[in-house]
Design brief:
Strand content: 15-25%
CATH architecture of one domain: 3-Layer(aba) Sandwich
CATH topology of one domain: Rossmann fold
Strand order of the largest sheet: 5-6-7-3-8-9
Number of strands: 18
Shape: globular
Distance between the termini: 37 Å
Number of helices: 17
CATH class of one domain: Alpha Beta
Largest sheet: 6 strands, mixed
Length: 528
């Protein structure tokens, strides 16, 4: 259970939430919604105890599990995915102890060793260790982690697989309060469906931030909406919230307009009367007092969702062959992720990279971007090629460096030009001077995309560029890239985004097979 009273949250010097109060009781399923940058992630961090509030009280009762936007398992390199998931209930140490005693028992049959093993085995059984392993594997499989990967060390898993492992660990821990920040990012459609069912049936309470409307609609019973520093609560599903929100916005807009008209009418009347007789001037004073009361009581009309209008500049000319890869292979100390991947990308082409989780899509883009070395094979860029890379992990966005400095590293344009580019992504005002490490996930995505615009590249490597974006921003980015005539290599689980880009060919990983794009493949984009 969570009780929040008078909560205030600051991000850098900016107040993002004021006087927020709410209670999350056992069994409540709460959706936390709002535009990118309004403070959703900051609120979850405060509720999880990771950040301090600027004011107010948070009371936590019961166990709590928190999955941030980009979870990174903190574990020893040799620890397997299974043992890390089991650590959610502290069973990893018990399993390791049992395995060690079993090894001793193979060459030491003394009564003391037998007794130690028997006691450890009995304790492990009573704690549900044996049944818990199957539960852990079931959760991992439901989240899209292939069963043959569960017993591998974490160090050899891809970034997407490690995120699934961390989400599985927290779900396996079965906390009484579950805080989830964009849990469907990087999940395919089957894993999303499984997670929806899991959350719907979950016995504990849940607070979830997600731009996945299907997840919100099927799994929650309440919505907390953050806008302009205020938190407003709505009862019901996400669809019911949307309907109620539209009615509320219409009512508030109408009321704000009536109040503003009355304030203007009375102010004009008082101003005219003030210049007339002493009696009328006295009456004017009373009217001004009434105007002041109206101003103090007036409501603020809801801000309209600002459309994101993005334009990528005309790309510089390049040779006909933009990218050539020959015999690329990659592994991380375990089984090889892919081998003998060979392909070419021509000018203006849009190549979609598809494959199941762990098939090496991100690894391939990291190699092409010069962020990682292949185990074998080579690649080269064509004549006049300028490469821009969007990394789904936002590796290029460094804490401690201001947003504007990140833009200056991509372009020598004047500050007003760079600010205008940031403004296209609704990164306005003081955000330009803000530490980039303090941005929300959606704001980091927008900054990384703004850097691509500033760089004036003609080849873009895009690894899940719509993750973390609110719907208007996602639509704006898709429209801008669809109109851009440059060359793209794309990884995405977002069918609407892929459809907007109209890729010409598909590279299927890990086999490296090339084929022409067919509209029928849209049905499997979210699964690959």
């Amino acid at each position: 259970m969570l009780q929040v009273r008078g909560l205030a949250i600051d991000v850098v010097a900016r107040r993002v939430l004021s006087d927020a109060s709410f209670t999350v009781a056992a069994g409540d399923k709460v959706g936390l919604v709002g535009r990118n940058g309004v403070g959703k992630t900051s609120l979850l961090k405060v509720l999880a105890g990771e950040n301090d509030a600027a004011g107010g009280v948070v009371l936590r009762r019961g166990t709590l599990g928190y999955v941030p936007q980009n979870p990174r398992p903190r574990a020893e390199a040799a620890q397997t995915a299974l043992s890390h998931i089991l650590s959610g209930r502290g069973l990893d140490r018990a399993a390791a102890r049992l395995a060690e005693l079993h090894r001793q028992l193979e060459h030491d049959h003394s009564p003391a060793t037998i007794e130690s093993y028997s006691e450890a085995e009995e304790r492990y059984r009573l704690d549900g260790g044996y049944s818990s392993e199957s539960d852990a594997r079931r959760i991992a499989g439901g989240l899209g982690l292939r069963l043959d990967r569960v017993d591998l060390p974490l160090s050899v898993l891809s970034g997407g697989e490690r995120r699934r492992v961390e989400l599985a660990r927290v779900l396996f821990a079965d906390p009484e309060v579950l805080l989830l920040d964009e849990p469907t990012n990087h999940l395919d459609s089957d894993a999303k469906s499984w997670l929806m069912d899991f959350l719907r049936d979950y016995r504990g309470s849940v607070i979830v931030v997600s731009h996945d409307l299907g997840l919100l609609d099927s799994s929650i019973t309440r919505v907390l909406h953050i806008d302009a520093g205020r938190l407003i609560e709505y009862r019901g599903t996400y669809s019911q919230y949307q309907a109620a929100r539209r009615l509320e916005e219409k009512r508030l807009t109408s009321l704000a307009q009536r109040q503003e008209s009355e304030i203007k009418r009375l102010s004009l009347l008082a101003e005219v009367m003030r210049r007339q007789t002493a009696k009328r001037a006295k009456q004017a004073h009373s009217i001004f007092t009434r105007v002041d009361r109206l101003k103090a009581q007036r409501v603020i009309a809801p801000r309209r969702e600002r459309k994101v209008k993005i334009t990528f500049p005309e790309p510089p000319h390049s040779g006909r062959i933009v990218l050539h890869a020959n015999g690329l292979a990659k592994g991380y100390g375990g089984p090889v992720v892919f081998r003998d991947v060979t392909f070419e990308v021509e000018r203006h082409e849009r190549l979609l990279v598809m494959g199941l989780n762990g098939a090496g899509k991100t690894s391939l883009l990291r190699i092409l971007a010069g962020q990682s070395e292949p185990n074998s094979g080579l690649f080269r860029l064509g004549h006049g090629v300028s490469l821009g890379y969007y990394a789904q992990e936002h590796e290029g966005i460094r804490p401690g460096i201001p947003v504007l400095q990140h833009m200056r590293e991509q372009s020598d344009a004047e500050e007003r030009v760079l600010r205008a580019l940031l403004g296209m992504f609704n990164l306005t005002g003081d955000i330009a001077r803000q530490d980039a490490g303090t941005l929300s996930g959606g704001e980091k995505t927008k900054l990384a995309l703004a850097q691509l615009v500033a760089g004036r590249h003609n080849l873009l490597l895009l690894d899940e560029p719509t993750n973390n974006l609110d719907p208007p921003s996602r639509t704006g980015v898709a429209r801008a890239l669809a109109e851009w005539p440059g060359t793209m290599v794309i990884v995405s689980h977002d069918p609407e985004f892929v459809e907007a880009l109209h890729p010409g060919r598909v590279l299927f990983m890990p086999e490296g097979r090339l084929d022409y794009w067919e509209e029928d493949l849209l049905d499997v984009v979210s699964m690959a």
